[in-house]
Amino acid sequence: MMLAPLRIGFSTVYSWRPHVEHVHFLAQLAERAGHEAFYLTCDADLPTCYTREMRDRPAWLECLQCRAGGVRSYSGQKVTSIGTSAPRDSAQAPAEWAQSSASTLGRFESDADYASAEFQAIAARLQPAVQLSYQAARAWIRDQRLDAVCVFNGRMDATRAIFEAARSLGVRAVSLERTWFSDGLQIYPEETCMGLGSVHRLIGEWKDRPLTEAQARQAATYMARRFLKRNGNEWRAYNLDAMAASWPVQGGGRRVLLIPSSRNEVWGQPDWESGWSDPLVAYDALIDHLGLQPNDLVLRCHPNWGENIGNAGGSYSERHYRDWAVRRGIHVIPSTDKTSTLSLIEQCDAIVVANGSAALEAGTLGKQVIAIAPSIYQEAGFRDDVVRPEQLAGLRLHVDLDAAERSRLQAAIPRQTLRFAYTMVHRVPQYTRYVRAETPARFKYDMAADPQRFIDLLRSGVLRADDEEYADDARAEDEVLARIARHDWAGLLDQAEPDFAHFEDVQRRPMFRPIDTVRQWMRIGDR
To answer: How would you write 468-502 as a 3-class SS string?
Structure first.
């Protein structure tokens, strides 16, 4: 039976690179396959927004820059403004939709931080923008008779409102974001960009299937880039100028590295909620259960905490963890310290993480990864879960196990990490062979990409693996894993330059093309 063409809505309220061109790429694919694309944008309609709250710049300047780089610079047709749609809907948006943005803007960490007047004030300033966006999106969806809505992010204030507007009307909602290593597109059906449902399902489905030689080499390349500090296409690459250092504590019987994450990045996201009231409660319980002494532990503060994101530094997080460590007599490495986190991972027996990406390096090296919170690698098979207090009883340090069991685990963990890396980079993202990053903000596109993959996702609401090939046995993995065991990072690195012969830019409308010449010298996203 012939299915009717879809009427698809696209929205990118914030014109951060590269998200607007990602949206326009998908819209072009859809139109090429006979479907219709419609856009919702902000023409300086919101009383404030995440971008304006993040930086100390005049509102008119922030809005001018955002409008110049927005969807109207790519398409002059079927574009609706939030300001013209909102007055025709009276639905009310819950106050909590503004709180995730407030959490990130203030970079809050403790329960006391979230109970503060500062947090409440930021959320209150954003709530009118959430309300306006929700009403506008509902009117837009009805006016254009949309079958599906693809919205950038879906977590932050106005983007959350647009995502929820689609769901409130029974319209398929998908979120769009950049991917971890930049190639491809992160497209989650019926989940915001922080959703873990599709990720858990795909990681779990593929963790027991061997990789082909090409897949294993490709996965190892991503790992090698991190070990060689050549992972510059990640949105935030840390510790690139770090220096190797010896383990900083003497006399301990074990070496356990605590690598905390920033609570504000996942606060209020149900999929990421831990069974612990605070990560420090989990740390205390782990220390007691494993019988650890202060000189068995090192706390490495996240390098991110030493950097500003917009106007906000990471002092709330650093103080929360540093004060706890000082009380317990545990050695602390500050966020601004140049000590290489990787060198500490190489020397430790185990790392304790919430959901940080340091687990990738640790797993590659066969180290024990103890996780106290949900994460993208939760179903990958290489971490020990203590996400809830009741899971603690079964936890043992690998270094305390007998030699045969230690050997088995040291072989199994890198294999599962390799498979996770491939699935997270080449199966969860879509169009990985057609959307390629030259830099974190500059992309090339192969317009030969099949639109049907995106259309099927919209119709079914199910994320399919972008690559469904796998090997019959593990021999190809074995060869790559042997090279990983030798730390042959240079040999594992894919030296071939990307072939962009069939790739092209997603072009703005002619009068807007000079924007890209100027923007390449400007800050990107939340910098």
So the answer is: CCCCCCCHHHHHHHHHHHCCCHHHHCCCCCCCCCC
The fold adopted by the segment(s) 210-426 is Rossmann fold (3.40.50)
Task: Sheet with 350-353: list strands edge to edge.
Answer: 331-333, 297-300, 256-259, 350-353, 368-371, 383-385
Helix segments in 377-460, DSSP class H: 403-426, 451-460
- What angle is formed at CA 192 by the lines to CA 71 and CA 51, rounded to 5 degrees? 50
CA distance 455 to 35: 9
Decide: residue 444, CB within 10 A, 0-12 exposed, 13-18 middle, 19+ buried.
Answer: middle
CA distance 430 to 179: 9
Q: Quickly tell me which residue has 């990787």 as its tokens.
A: 342
Q: How confident is the model at residue 496 (pLDDT cuts 50, 70, 90)?
A: low
Q: Give the DSSP letter of residue 196.
A: -
pLDDT in tens, 163-217: 999 999 999 999 999 999 999 999 999 999 999 999 999 999 999 999 999 999 9
Specify the DSSP class assigned to residue 434. Answer: T
Mean pLDDT rounded to a whole number for the chain: 94
Query: Each residue of 252-308: pLDDT tens digit?
Result: 999 999 999 999 999 999 999 999 999 999 999 999 999 999 999 999 999 999 999
Contact 364, 414 (CB under 8 A): yes
| Local structure of 383: helix, strand or coil | strand
108-141 residue pLDDT tens: 999 999 999 999 999 999 999 999 999 999 999 9
Q: State pLDDT tens for residues 17-67.
A: 899 999 999 999 999 999 999 999 999 999 999 999 998 889 989 999 899
Domain coordinates in residue numbering, the chain: 7-177+431-462+496-519, 210-426
Q: How far is CA 211 from CA 208, 216, 460, 476, in A?
A: 9, 5, 27, 7
Residue 407 in tokens = 């050997």
